[in-house]
Amino acid sequence: MTYHSLFRQRACHQRIETDGRYRTVSSKNMLTSFSCTLSNHIEKIVLPLCLTCSLLPNAGALSADNTALITQSGDNQRGTIIHEGNQLQASLAQQGLDHDISIEQVGDNHIVSSQQEGANHITHITQIGQGHDATLSQQGDDNQILLSQDGEFHEADIHQGPLSESSLVTLDQSGTAQSSSVTQDGIFNTIAQYQQGEINRLIATQVGDENAISQVQDGTGNLASATQYGTGNTISQTQIGNGNTAEARQYGQDNAITHTQIGDGLEYAITQDGQGLAITITQDMTGTIAVSP
User: Fold this and answer.
1) pLDDT tens by residue, 105-136
2) In whole angstroms, what is the distance from residue 278 CA to residue 233 CA?
3) How many CB atoms lie within 10 A of CB 292?
């Protein structure tokens, strides 16, 4: 019997044992990519570190081709994937209420894609060292996305909405090729972004209601952008060093933009539309401008 068929047989029972080369995936009511429906009573599944490498033709060493796929529907679902080392990929989808996704990837060519539909969801993703890529999506009320990426090629693309009441996104990227883009839809909104050195880029867009965006960049390529449409509004941007550029736009109601740049290329563009309005801009090194109409 091949490892593949043996693994699939065991996967249809309540516990999977392997020869010790594994990480854990914890879940309830889980339908896995191995095409067998697991019992609703499963509390824990122990999966091999390389979930699909034995399914791939001419696959290399066990740790080289990591993959994990989980699909859950219903309420109060939990999905946890832990990967260490090499090509890594994870994809997780949930539908219903009160879901929780946690994915941790350490080292090498990461990719994560996660999707939640419903209310009261939390997605918590950690990627450490090298390839990074994360695309995260939530639809519904009271959702949260927490994404942390550590050094090298980063990229993240995050969407919340439509109907994204009480939503929150926090994104933390550290050194080298970073990039990031976030979109939110409506009601309590809030976004916080952070980047450190090298190619940098941040864009965030919000559409309606309580709104808030805060962006920070550190050094090299720099670009920041933030767009808001209506209600509470606030944008705060900080750039420190090198290429610099920032653009912020707001349209209706309580409005405020606070912006700081320190050093090198510097440049700024701003648009506000109406009501509360307030602007503070500080540029340094080649001159300082502060405006508060």
Assistant:
1) 998 899 999 888 888 889 999 999 999 999 99
2) 11
3) 9
Please write the tens of the pLDDT for every residue from 229-241: 989 999 999 999 9
- Cα-Cα end-to-end distance for the chain: 76
Q: Report d(CA 108, CA 131) in Å as an integer.
A: 6
Which SS3 state, helix, strand or coil, does residue 130 take? strand
Distance CA 166, CA 187 (A): 6
> In this structure, which amino acid lies at residue 152?
E
pLDDT digit string (tens) for 215-271? 999 989 999 999 999 899 999 999 999 899 999 999 999 999 999 999 989 888 999
Which structure tokens are listed for 268?
A: 């700024």
The pair phi, psi for residue 243, each rounded to 5°, is -50, -40
Band of residue 288 on the pLDDT scale cut at 50, 70, 90:
low
Strand ordering across the sheet containing 252-253: 208-209, 230-231, 252-253
Write down the number of H helices and E strands in the chain: 1, 26
Which position has the token pair 């020869």? 19
State the number of CA atoms in the 13 A half-sphere of 86 facing the CB. Answer: 13
Contact by Cβ (8 Å): 125, 103: yes
- pLDDT at site 64: 64
